[in-house]
Amino acid sequence: MKKVTLIIAAVSLAMGSAHAAKLTVWTQYQGNELAWLKQVAKTYEKSNKGDTVEIVSVPFGDTQQKFILGAPKGEGPDLIMTVPHDRLGELAAAGVIEPLEKYVSNKKDYSDVALDALTYRGKLFGLPVSTEAVAVVYNKKLVPTFPANWNDFLKTAQKLTDPNKGTFGFFTNLDDIYINYGVVSAYGGYVFKNNKGTLDTKDVGIANAGATKAMAFLNDLRYKYNLVPQGVNNDVAKSAFLDGQLGMWLTGPWDMESIKQTKIDYGIATLPTPPGASSKWSPFVGVQGLVMNAYSKNKVAAAKLAKLLTSSSSQVSFNKAGGRIPASKSALARLKNDPVVAGFSKSVAAGTPMPNIPQMGAVWGPWTDAIKLATQKPGADYNGILDNALKQVKANIK
Length: 398
Prior knowledge:
Layout: H1 2-19, E1 22-27, H2 31-47, E2 52-57, H3 60-70, E3 79-84, H4 88-93, H5 112-117, E4 119-120, E5 123-124, E6 127-132, E7 135-139, H6 150-160, E8 168-171, H7 177-186, E9 192-195, E10 198-204, H8 209-223, H9 234-242, E11 246-251, H10 256-262, E12 266-269, E13 284-292, H11 299-309, H12 312-322, E14 325-326, H13 329-334, H14 339-350, E15 352-353, H15 364-374, H16 382-397
């Protein structure tokens, strides 16, 4: 009887070993966020006896190309934690990431904008981890109540602006099209026309009538309203805000740790609808997603780990580790008293995902050059500037 028992135990152990998964996760995380990831991996290992998770640090700039080249050779990880959604299209087009619908039975807890961002050609290629978008961060000592509309916003900003005293009402980096896309969108501009979830690369809206109006408005911020002087970039704006000299600043959650350290009493709000705009301000949204290797030999186990890493509880603890804005609706609800989460999540909800198709790489350069030219002098030739940018984009795409 003892011999039979030993044989059964040996067979069971062998079967368990045969089914054990050795998972590898690539990540660019550092510090507290890396420690968080390793802790969740340990939690997974305890719940899935025999499975192991190896966390490998890979510099962000190396991940994309290394993965595209290595995955087909069996040299890639099972999961990448995480990929910015605007790089998703290139990975999907290369065939190195796995569609995830069949592994995820319930997607209701993920925010709609995050799911849209991680969907490429109708298929979900990533599980949402965190989101980001710009918003207006304001100093409550200078702006006790945030203005509800553009007229009040302008009055508040101009009242605070006094270069002789070194005080300013509102700053944005006018050279940065990403930061200012919400204005472009409000006036009716766009990058690629969205036709029921498919981005049409032949319909580029960076030089349409709405985009032209947006450039004129951004020019007005400098030369008509006298709010944003020449030379104001993100570093200048940040310094002014941290020194208590700036009332309102269009920036993202990446600057909040510095603001918290100053002990400034701050608020976060969405930019009011610009004058004469056809829609509300809608900034670009960036989403960080967890992706699976299409060549992984442990897809079921990798999917189980992926769901744990992107669960509501994990996103709450991830926020505590690094301050990122969750993509989980229930995690957002649990963090509703966190002013950073509450403020930026409203901006994310109002926003538009950056295009995730490879052709977006053809847009950034000409478009950035265009916004710089459009805000260099009063009354620039917006039509000519944008038409030239459009020609360059179309040539780049071909």
